[in-house]
Amino acid sequence: MAAHKILLADSEFGPQSVLAPLLERRDFNVTRARSIDAAWRVLTKEHPRMMLLDPMMPSGTEGFHLVWRLRDYPDRRVNEVPVIMMSRIHQTTDLKLFPKLNDGHYEPHEFMPIHAFLDKPFDERVLMETIDDVLGRSAA
Fold first, then answer.
1. Is 108 exposed, middle or buried (0-12, 13-18, 19+ CB in 10 A)?
2. pTM of the model
């Protein structure tokens, strides 16, 4: 079975240096992008199976715009790529980007059209469970 290709879109050097080797040890084929332009090229040319995205890229909130551009793209190989967003934003603001699963009021897609949200820093086990869950749901 071929390894799943995962796009790691994060401008921070630290999380890439930790996440990529972790994912590669779990037999994922990791492609890194440190800018939105680089991430877009990978999404449209290489069609990864999933994207891990930190929305706070070098010039601000570019990652949020990337998600909407991705969902509006006409090619299903691009617009259906599952996205797990990872950020420290909840440490600095009360704004919530993704509901708790037991929210009871909002569905996840009503916040951002992403599949999951992880607050940084996160536990390796939680990351891998989230990836497995999202890949399982998107294959169904």
1. middle
2. 0.82
